[in-house]
């Protein structure tokens, strides 16, 4: 199995300013599936709600440092602010409620949009770095977009799914034209899909029409195990590996890796 770090890690930011679209669920389960498939992966929780942190069984109220420290301290050490999840094989830069204050503390700091990017320069031996961004187009999200080489956008299969995507696309274009010219769109993940609903099928077709060649083929279904897994501190791929949600994320991850040129064992 070939790893993907010949030229440094691939850095993807999971972004959607709309909440409740499966962003954290996608980041956590793609990270877990990547690790299972032999990739050295770091998951970065860039949200003060710390849902990725909690989803991996880490108490956000006990976190010292993490993404908050990397943002407010330009000299912070990446390794010292990273946890290793032995069971899952995932490296985690955890979040805590302290992160909510980072934006205020960074207001007058020079190079505030590049703090995360600078921290990542210490983590070149990873195959992948996945960033779980907050549900907003804030300074935290901008740090993620500046640090990333590409964006992954989870989109819920419901009415008004395209609402807000125009604004997000404008933000991506603005970052590309000013700070990060190499930023690209890696793909859109259609989430919470109910195949029995005509509307869900129409939404998928509509998104594919607006973003041709940018929507992942594997779609994430609406699945009760996906909703249960975070309360157990595990990704669904470990909590309920036989569930439709787990299989969908495994297949999505394989699609992503193969698209990146990673050779997977048959």
What would your notes on this structure say?
- The protein has a seven-stranded mixed sheet with strand order 3-4-2-5-1-6-7, with helices on both faces.
- Strand 6, helix 7 and strand 7 form a beta-alpha-beta unit.
- The chain contains eleven helices and seven strands.
- The N and C termini lie close together (9 Å).
- It is α/β, with parallel strands linked by helices.
- The protein is 37% helix and 14% strand.
- The model has no long low-confidence stretch (mean pLDDT 93).
- Helix 1 packs across helix 11.
- The protein has one domain: Rossmann fold.
Q: Quick one: CATH class?
A: Alpha Beta
**The CATH superfamily title:** P-loop containing nucleotide triphosphate hydrolases
Number of helices: 11
CATH topology: Rossmann fold
> Sheet with the most strands?
7 strands, mixed
Assembly classification:
single chain
Supply the number of structural domains: 1
Number of strands: 7
Element-by-element helix/strand order = EHEHHEEHHEHEHEHHHH
- The second-level CATH architecture is 3-Layer(aba) Sandwich
Computed structural class: alpha/beta
Indicate the overall shape.
globular
Strand order of the largest sheet: 3-4-2-5-1-6-7
Fraction in helix:
25-40%
Which SSEs are present, and which pair or pack?
Blueprint: E1 10-14, H1 23-36, E2 41-45, H2 51-55, H3 66-72, E3 83-85, E4 90-93, H4 102-106, H5 115-120, E5 128-132, H6 139-147, E6 150-156, H7 165-178, E7 184-191, H8 198-210, H9 224-228, H10 236-239, H11 244-259
Parallel strand pairs: 1-5, 1-6, 2-4, 2-5, 6-7
Antiparallel strand pairs: 3-4
